């Protein structure tokens, strides 16, 4: 019995060494988007400026924007988020309490409770395929068109 060894192909997967500066630069080069979901679909989304991350201050601002979006619906809010640090800070917990929202703990390792994974990423990937944006405002406009087309 013989085996074939192909030494020409590089192995895919995790690299042996990580260039941390390259990872940080790549992360800062692209804006990120946050999405807030309700039972019937997206409620609020925001495209963060390049290099901006979600910390407790940003998260509390987004909670307030989400509250304003929900203001006219007059339905009780049961709030579920994952266990990331900005979502668990004292400031964030106080903001949620001030809003009067009931909270539901997110079970660990529960990808089935991340609606973006199931309802957003594939269709958004198709929408963005081949598009190039010169500015963050162009990207924001395209995302607005995408979400408006889903209503």
UniProtKB/TrEMBL annotation:
It holds the Pfam family Transposase_1. GO terms for molecular function: nucleic acid binding. InterPro entries: RNaseH_sf (IPR036397), Transposase-MT_Hybrid (IPR052709), Transposase_1 (IPR001888). It comes from the Eukaryota. Transmembrane segments: none annotated. PANTHER family: MARINER MOS1 TRANSPOSASE-LIKE PROTEIN. This is Transposase. It comes from Acrobeloides nanus.
């Amino acid at each position: 019995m013989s085996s074939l060894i192909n030494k020409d192909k590089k192995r895919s997967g995790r690299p042996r060494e990580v260039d941390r500066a390259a990872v940080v630069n790549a992360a800062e080069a692209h804006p990120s988007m946050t999405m807030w979901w309700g039972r019937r679909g997206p409620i609020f989304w925001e495209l963060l400026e390049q290099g901006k991350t979600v910390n407790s201050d940003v998260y509390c601002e987004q909670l307030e924007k989400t509250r304003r979006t929900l203001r006219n619906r007059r339905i009780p809010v049961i709030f579920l988020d994952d266990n990331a640090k900005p979502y668990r800070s004292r400031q964030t917990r106080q903001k949620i309490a001030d809003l009067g929202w009931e909270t539901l703990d997110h079970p660990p390792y529960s990808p089935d409770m991340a609606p973006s994974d199931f309802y957003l990423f594939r269709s958004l990937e198709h929408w963005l395929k081949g598009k190039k944006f010169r500015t963050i405002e162009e990207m924001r406009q395209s995302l607005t068109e995408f979400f408006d087309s889903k209503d």
